[in-house]
Amino acid sequence: MQELGTTLSSFIINEQRKLGSSAGGTFTGLLNDITIACKGIANLVNRGDLAGVLGVTDSENSMGDVQKKMDLIADQMFIDALENNGHCAGMASEEQDDVIHTSEGKQRGHYLVTFDPLDGSSNMDINMDVGAIFSILQAPEGIINPTAEHFSRPGTEQIAAGYCLYGPSTMMVLTTGNGVNGFTLCSSIGEFILTHPNMAIPEDTAEYAINASNQRFWEKPVQDYIADCVQGEEGPLGKRYNMRWVAAMVGEIHRILCRGGIFLYPIDERNREAGGKLRLLYEGNPMAMIVEQAGGAAYTGYERVMEVKPNGDPHQRVPVIMGSKNEVMKVMEYHKNA
Length: 338
Ligand code: F6P
Description:
Layout: H1 8-18, H2 24-47, E1 56-60, E2 66-68, H3 69-84, E3 88-93, E4 100-101, E5 111-119, E6 130-138, H4 148-151, E7 160-166, E8 170-175, E9 180-186, E10 191-196, E11 207-209, H5 220-230, E12 242-243, H6 249-259, E13 262-265, E14 278-279, H7 280-293, E15 297-299, E16 317-318, E17 320-323, H8 325-337
Parallel strand pairs: 3-5, 11-12, 11-13
Antiparallel strand pairs: 1-2, 3-4, 5-6, 6-7, 7-8, 8-9, 9-10, 13-17, 14-16, 15-17
Helix pairs in contact: 1-2, 2-3, 5-8
């Protein structure tokens, strides 16, 4: 008989034991709730039009993005799964204006969870990669209904972060602050199995990901860096670069975790007032924690993403430049010299 392998739950239980953590049971329970949401979403994403989940709704989220049907379904699946077992004290979702309180009568736990239930959802209707991103914070003692301020904490306070990629296979990638591990969903037994232990981002790369159609809006340091990449081995960077754009951050970061690279969604003339394009709590901080834990770097161009001071708005935006350490530090040099 084929060996089952290490399931995500047994991996977490063992990790908690090694760290001598007393929170083992509830934390493992919380992660289990998240995996339940992700398995349910994976099933619908995988069935696509057969499940009737493609297309848009007539509503917009707080940032003015038109919501896809699957955005709303995935959001509700996260909320239901997180409420069910009482491990979570409150939630904040990219799809909701306000933070979400645990329903009356339901048990409250020790953790706050923020999530983007369907990252890159414009890929949904064209059968391309989408994902979910989540971040876990310790809930403040004695707070029954957490407010936006309780969630608005620097990324350095995260105790865990992860994403689930719904690609050709469904993968959960997770850090609890002790490295990064990847688990592949085995559909025959319905469990995430450890397939990518100790994921590490190569320090050097010649592959970048940026939406180049925004070029005319970028700041000078990013203009200069990309112009130098495009010159290849004849330019000052002395190597031939390749470019990729999945249009779902989960896909970009997963590629970088697997083979290195740099992902940029920089500040530009159009998003300057908003502070950037991607969301600090739902995208920037969790991905920065994963990237740093895998040996990479994550900056805004000016400071570490995880040290950005939250302004109290759970939908705060942030510029991001993350991935292979040496390449990110090179882009930081362009910023310092500008
Ligand atoms: O924030 C949502 C998101 O879909 C990211 O996952 C992705 O990196 C980015 O927006 C894509 O943006 P664009 O519309 O510029 O391709």
